[in-house]
Amino acid sequence: MKHFETLTEAMEDLRGRGYTHEFAPKKDFLEEKSTATKLKSEEFNVDEFHRFEGTSDPGDEMTLYAITASNGLKGVFVSAQGTYSNEVSSELMVKFNITDRAEVNTDGAVKPINAPEVGQ
Hints:
The chain has 120 residues and is mostly beta strands.
């Protein structure tokens, strides 16, 4: 998977691959902005994600999710760190916790820095 330097670059690449819709979270569902299509957590899958940090402020973290709905609709959801934490149900946010799901492409994840071993 390609590493993207910017959120815009990643979104353009995903659009080119058919992820043309934009989703926004509502209390317990995602809503596609132009059609008002509502998707419960069991009605979509996260295909891949890409995480970006601000160049001057690590608190400017954004995560871009590529989503495919069970009805075939493909699009993106951009989440700013902490932005939706009080607005969205825990059931919906669990869908975006991809740490233990092998089917999600995690190549866009921020990789931890390997700490030196003790004694080195």
